[in-house]
Amino acid sequence: MFKTRRKKRRYLYYFIFIFVVVILFYSFSKFEVFEKEEPIIHASNTVFTNPNEDLNIKITDESSGISNISIILKLDSNDSGVTISKQSINKEKELNIRLKLSEILPKNSGKYYVLRVEAKDSSYWNFLRGNIATKDIVIVLDSKKPLVNVISHSPYIEKGGAAAVVFRARDDNLAEVYIEDNEGRKFIAKKYLKDSFYAALIAWDPRKKDFSANVVAKDKAKNITKERIKFIVQDRQYRISNIALKDSFLDGKIKSLTQQYSPEGSDFNRLESFKFINETLRNSNEKLIHELSSKIPENELKNFKLSPFLPLKNSAKVADFADHRFYSYENEAVSNSHHLGLDLASVAQAPIISSNEGSVVFAGENGIYGLNILIYHGFGLYSLYGHCTNSYVQLHDEVKKGDEIATTGISGLALGDHLHFGILVQGIETRPEQWQDRKWLQTHIHQVLDNGSKYILGR
User: At residue 80, does pLDDT exceed 60?
Assistant: First the structure.
């Protein structure tokens, strides 16, 4: 009986010991020394690169920190590999490794390699061995640049004008295709009719002095090809206007718009109000227009035909496109702006007609533009209508050629009843007169696309 009692007591001690160990182990596991999270190796499973590029690998461990890393280079997944880097780390939370591929890769060898990256943390978990993360990164070498050739393009582009381009870009690992001008602005190019063929509308901002453009193709290995589009580039002089501000204008339209749009608590004098409307509000309104009109929602271009844009019947031009206006008050310079549209007038509240089918992307109040409508016609082309009195369309409406979309008016920064009409290409205002000219449309847009189509389809 005594032995039985001692035996039971021994089991009780064992149980208490094990219980205490479990409690202590669980408690310690809450601390970094026994954390169970593996380090994270931030790298893609497959990396396309060329031998001249460096490969960057980031390793993080936010808990116990990194204790050591090793990197093994393998000719393929079955190769045992060669260790190219082995480091002991003093509990770093983040480690950035840069590998010079030109130094570590064998000369005149294959196109594919495997880098095995192994990272161990400083935890005492896993019977003091810590947590280990392993990742195999497939390295695909590619030093061949994409092939690019321009197939057709508009014969010339003028300052403030637009042009069309059709081209081909080929590469097994093609990543990005676009057109870039001398200012670094990128124009989106869309697939045209067949794989590897692209088309785009581009534009020369009337406020920029020079223009040139290249087709740019990049592959996944960061090889780049640039092919110049050989336009004839035509400069164009736009009007410069010097306008003396009158008190009646400042105390009328400007004051009214300031009360409507200025921040609460503002106490602007006459000239401050004008600068707010002509600069701050104008920039905000144009930013919205540019953001909306920079998008090309369709994935590819198939058919693109336009009729001349003639939104207002029997109208007369009352203000020029790209007019650079300098404002003064009592013979002192105050502000300046560019008038990036064409002002047309006929009779009060005249019907505004959509000359081409499209989709409404904006219909509402927009500061100096008043009641403003923006319609997308495809291929990155938008038409704009400002200062309207009434709008007969809403956001996302589909309009047809000949539909009445609005009436002219004096909303926004308009003194007399008229239509502010604009045409934008990928967020850049262009000369509306071009888009009103049937011959220009045929030569610079339709014929360019038709010539590209014949080449691509072999007709």
Answer: yes
Q: What are the contacts of 211-215 at 24+ separation with CB within 8 A?
A: 211/157, 211/159, 211/181, 211/182, 212/181, 212/182, 213/165, 213/179, 213/180, 213/181, 213/182, 213/187, 214/179, 214/180, 215/148, 215/150, 215/165, 215/167, 215/169, 215/177, 215/178, 215/179, 215/189
Alpha carbon distance, N-terminus to C-terminus of the chain: 108
Sign of CA dihedral 395, 400, 404, 407: positive
227 band by pLDDT with thresholds 50, 70 and 90: very high
Report the DSSP beta bridge partners of residue 216.
178, 226
C-alpha to C-alpha distance for 320 and 431, rounded to whole angstroms: 9
This prediction has a pTM of: 0.86
Q: Which residue, 313, 301, 253, 300, is CA-closest to 277?
A: 253
Cα–Cα dist 182/375, whole Å = 28
- For the chain, domains (ranges, CATH) are 35-141 (2.60.40.730), 147-236 (2.60.40.1930), 241-426 (2.70.70.10)
Give bridge partners of residue 41 from the DSSP assignment.
59
Of 420, 422, 397, which Cα lies nearest the Cα of 409? Answer: 420
**What are the tokens at 162?**
């637009």
